[in-house]
Design a protein that fits this description.
With 48 residues, this protein is an all-alpha fold. It contains one helix and no strands.
């Protein structure tokens, strides 16, 4: 019984670890997109 519980907990942990990594990647890419967009707008504004 304890072995089945350990296996199911490990499966849950690995699944949530993958979801956490995917979420961190999405947040990082979104952050860099916002920064790049801000830099682009700043350059456009400075060129006028």
């Amino acid at each position: 019984m304890k072995n089945a519980l350990t296996v199911s907990l490990n499966a849950l942990r690995s699944r949530f670890a993958v979801l956490g990594l995917a979420g961190a990647l999405v947040i990082t890419l979104t952050w860099w997109f916002v920064v790049a967009r801000g830099l682009w707008l700043a350059l456009e504004w400075a060129a006028v």
